[in-house]
Specification:
The structure holds two protein chains of two kinds. By secondary structure, chain A is mostly helical. Chain A has three helices and no strands. The model of chain A has no long low-confidence stretch (mean pLDDT 82). A two-stranded antiparallel ribbon of chain B has the order 1-2. Chain B contains 33 helices and two strands. Helices cover 73% and strands 2% of the residues of chain B. The longest helix of chain B is centred in the first third of the chain and has 32 residues. Chain B has three domains: 265 residues, no CATH class; 254 residues, no CATH class; 61 residues, no CATH class. At the A-B interface, α1, α2 and α3 of A face α25, α26, α27, α28 and α29 of B.
Chain lengths: 117, 777
């Protein structure tokens, strides 16, 4: 299963990088989204996927062992990453909207100078 | 009294910083009122001057410093008193003088601000007891003088001159820093008082040559010695009060001061003597020689300053009792007459509108007081009695004649330079002061014959001091012998007199004056000769060479920066991806070991594989889609697919968050997309194929990293800690949540901050409307 997910991540990265290298700014943003999803998956995979129990402590117990549950630490990290990703997405979309409104172009090659239009 | 003097120096610094506040209060009286502080300091120093016993130095600790080794402690001895009195006295006069000279200039606040800070820095430099503190003040003088020289910053020439002066003196400053650190390491202390009391001298040490070279560069750059002399005439672009101050007793004499200060520690070696005598001699000669060919009064003075600095460096290099004494006296002489002459030049400039000596004439009649002050200063410059300049020159000749091995070289050089000084003095005197028949007297711009009395106070006082000290040089005996004690590290009795009998030295003086007069009489042929030589040397015009060097360097750097910083976003990315790819693949392959172990991996679950296949197809569809909306919808499919994956592997919180975040992003995207253009194929097929290859290689690299990462464990995972403590200490049963809100609560705080910033950013962006603003204007 790890091999399958690894190939899936590789595919996501390939698509993401290809999108990043486009000149259209909309595609660039799509690329950022794809890559951030792929990166989250890498972190998730690093915790291991051999166990798949929910990382809760049972009602009666005081502590839990990691033997049955998914590693909670990568989850916490990814959770943070997803939320920050949301913030970045909102910002980048607003920026793009304004950028297009101001410059009238979505071609990144036109953006090499600071004083546009 | 020592404390008072130091307090006054600190006060000068504070005053400089307060100028922007004070000037609106004091208005046109700023210069005159602020001059009171340096005068008070001068008074305090005068008191010390008469009360300081022989062979003692007073050390004042401030207990303030940046480092334990770098305390701001001050020492008051003969040497620092002589320099300090010149700096504060002439400083006060220059401030008073500026009050009138600068009356119609814009930017007076800036002028006083930097001038007073410069004064403070210079005073700190001469009184510093700590070599590191001395270095800091040294750099401060360089920086403030940069702003002073470039005062007319809207003109090209002063800007260039200022930059040149800064680059050259900053080079010296760096050298000084290294030298100071090396001396400190060799001696184990940065304090001059300890260096002196230990009798530390490292002339025989193997690092001596390096340290000496560094000090030499520092001195040569600061004191405008050949071949670094060329920044000084350029610095004449500054307003005249600045020239009068920087080039008479302060800035350029810092190098002289440093040599005298370090003489007990590293003076008197072969390298010291050879380098200083040679450079000083050359500088002395070319300075005097070039002054003959100039027409601008200020430029004449600039070149004679170079010559005087050369003389002092040479005298210090000779390192005999007589030569050090001559150097000290000559420093006073030069400060007095040069300060006065610059001020006179400024007054003439203000009053006639020109500084060209071929146009000026007959000023003795129209401006008698100014002229007499100027003539007295010229007398001092040419070394005639009864001025202090005469004593200075006699002492110099005396030192040169007594120089055992080198008198054959230094005496003719010195006499030649002095002859030219005499000639230039007579020339200036004849051209501008004497009324003549064949040259019409120049008209004055001001109706009253002389300018206000305070304007004249500077040059008149300086001329009178020069005259008074020439008549009664005995005043200086005490302080000189104290200074000599700290420069030569041996007690010396000094007796100065105006008349010291009819001897070889006096004969030399008479010969010099006679020859100077001859040069003056032959000024036309001599002027022609200089006129031939100057264009010839202009081929090697150092200021221009220097400017070319700097501009070539800049364009070279600019060209290469443009090659790297070309502004094309995707080429930056390509560079980044290629470099990462190469480095990481190399590292992965060289690491070796296994990539995949079937027995250790978890079983393949078909429903998960199905989700992955759907997500992968969605992504590929998004990449190649031509419609914006379908691309975005397929991005949503990917996001939900990943969320489902999280769910299958027990990460419930992740799945929920991913679903929510993905939904919100989709909504925003759809809202924005309405305003955006359709996708267009912007790149050529060739570059798309290139990009595809890069993208696939990066993808393959990531797969390799993910696979390899499973076999590399650098640290023991700490997840067990969270599983054990989360209920007991965090009181929560959902471990992921407890990590977020308890164990790593600060991270979450940071995350919230990021969200808040993003929200603020979005809000500002949507309100920001540059085009509308422009049209409103």
């Amino acid at each position: 299963m790890e091999l399958v997910i690894a190939i899936f991540i590789g595919l996501l990265y390939a698509s993401g990088v290809y999108l990043l290298l486009r000149r259209s700014i909309v595609k660039l943003i799509l690329g950022v989204f794809v890559i951030s999803n792929a990166t989250n998956l890498i972190i998730f995979l690093s915790g291991g996927i051999t166990r798949s129990g929910v990382s809760f402590i049972g009602d009666e117990a005081e502590k839990a062992t990691l033997e049955t549950m998914t590693d909670p630490l990568p989850q916490a990290l990814i959770l943070t990453a997803i939320v920050i990703g949301l913030g970045i997405a909102a910002y980048i979309l607003a920026l793009k909207y304004k950028y297009f409104e101001t410059t009238g172009t979505h071609d990144l090659d036109q953006l090499s100078k600071t004083d546009q239009k | 009294m020592e404390q008072l003097a130091i307090v006054l120096i600190v006060l000068i610094f504070l005053m400089g910083l307060m100028v922007p506040v004070l000037r609106p209060l004091l208005k046109n009286y700023t210069g005159r009122i602020l001059a009171l502080v340096p005068f008070a300091l001068f008074g305090a120093l005068t008191f010390l001057f008469f009360s300081l016993p022989d062979e003692t130095a007073r050390i004042v600790e401030t207990g303030f410093g940046f480092l334990p080794e770098m305390q701001f402690s001050f020492r008051i001895d003969g040497l620092s008193l002589i320099f300090g009195m010149m700096v504060s006295g002439i400083g006060g006069l220059v401030l008073g003088y500026s009050s009138f000279y600068m009356a119609k200039y814009a930017g007076k606040t800036k002028f006083y601000f930097f001038l007073i800070l410069f004064m403070g820095a210079m005073l700190g430099l001469v009184f510093a007891d700590n070599l590191l503190a001395l270095f800091i003040f040294w750099e401060l003088t360089s920086i403030t003088s940069f702003f002073l020289i470039g005062f007319d910053h809207d003109k090209d020439k002063p800007r260039q001159a200022a930059l040149q002066a800064l680059l050259i003196t900053a080079l010296g400053g760096l050298c000084l820093l290294f030298a100071v650190i090396m001396i400190g390491n060799l001696a184990g202390t940065f304090r001059l008082s300890e260096l002196y009391s230990q009798g530390f001298h490292f002339g025989a040490h193997s690092q001596y040559q390096t340290v000496f070279l560094l000090i030499f560069v520092a001195v040569a750059t600061k004191s405008a010695q050949f071949p670094f002399h060329f920044w000084l005439p350029g610095a004449m672009n500054a307003p005249t009060p600045i020239s009068a101050y920087l080039h008479s007793a302060t800035m350029v004499n810092a190098g002289i001061f440093l040599l005298l200060r370090l003489n007990p520690v590293m003076g008197g070696t072969i390298a010291w003597k050879g380098a200083l005598i040679l450079t000083g001699g050359i500088t002395m000669f070319i300075g005097a020689f070039f002054s003959l060919g100039q027409k601008d009064l200020k430029r004449i003075l600039a070149f004679t300053t170079i010559s005087a600095l050369g003389t002092m460096v040479m005298l210090i290099g000779m390192n005999t009792t007589a030569s050090i004494k001559a150097a000290l006296i000559f420093f006073i002489v030069h400060g007095l007459y040069k300060g006065g002459l610059f001020m006179v030049a400024g007054i003439i400039d203000k009053n006639t509108g020109t500084r060209d000596i071929t146009r000026l004439s007959g000023l003795l009649k129209s401006m008698p007081v100014t002229s007499i002050a100027g003539i007295l200063a010229l007398l001092s410059m040419s070394g005639l009695p009864p001025m202090l300049g005469f004593i200075g020159k006699e002492l110099i000749y005396d030192a040169k004649v007594q120089m055992p091995e080198l008198s054959w070289l230094v005496v003719p050089l010195g006499v030649a330079a002095n002859m030219m000084m005499v000639a230039i003095s007579i020339l200036v005197f004849y051209e501008i002061f004497i009324p003549r028949k064949n040259k019409p007297a120049i008209a004055l711009l001001h109706k009253e014959k002389e300018l206000p009395g305070n304007f004249l106070a500077g040059p008149v006082i300086l001329a009178l001091i020069g005259l008074g000290l020439g008549m009664a040089p005995g005043w200086l005996n005490n302080i000189l012998s104290n200074a000599m004690f700290y420069v030569q590290s041996q007690a010396v009795d000094v007796h100065l007199t105006l008349w010291h009998g009819f001897n070889q030295v006096l004969l030399l003086s008479i010969f010099t004056v006679a020859m100077g007069t001859v040069i003056f009489i032959l000024r036309r042929p001599v002027g022609k000769l200089v006129g031939i030589i100057i264009p010839w040397t202009d081929q090697y015009h150092l200021p221009e060479k220097f400017n070319n060097l700097i501009s070539n360097y800049l364009s070279f750097a600019g060209k290469h920066t443009n090659r790297i910083q070309h502004g094309y976003h995707r080429y930056y990315l390509i560079t980044f991806f290629m470099a990462t790819l190469l480095l990481i693949v190399y590292q992965l392959l060289s690491a070796g070991g296994e990539w995949f172990h079937p027995s250790e991996s978890s079983p393949v679950r078909m429903h998960v594989v199905l989700v992955l296949i759907i997500s992968a197809m969605a992504v590929l569809f998004a990449v190649f889609s031509k419609s914006r909306l379908s691309a975005i919808v397929s991005m949503g499919v990917l996001g939900y697919g990943v969320a489902v994956l999280y769910m299958f592997y027990g990460a419930v919180d992740l799945a929920i968050t991913q679903f929510l975040a993905e939904t919100i992003i989709m909504v925003i995207f759809v809202m924005v997309i309405f305003y955006l253009p359709d996708f267009a194929v912007l790149s050529s097929k060739k570059s798309r194929i290139r990009d595809a290859i890069i993208a696939l290689s990066v993808g393959a690299m990531m797969t390799m990293i993910v696979l390899k990462a499973r076999f590399i464990n650098l640290e023991e995972p700490i997840s067990q800690f969270f599983a054990e403590k989360s209920y007991l200490e965090g009181h929560g049963r959902n471990i992921v949540n407890v990590i977020l809100v308890d164990f790593r609560a600060l991270d979450t705080l940071g995350e919230i901050t990021v969200l808040a910033l993003a929200a603020a950013g979005v809000f500002t962006l949507l309100r920001f409307n540059p085009i509308k603003k422009k049209s409103e204007k």
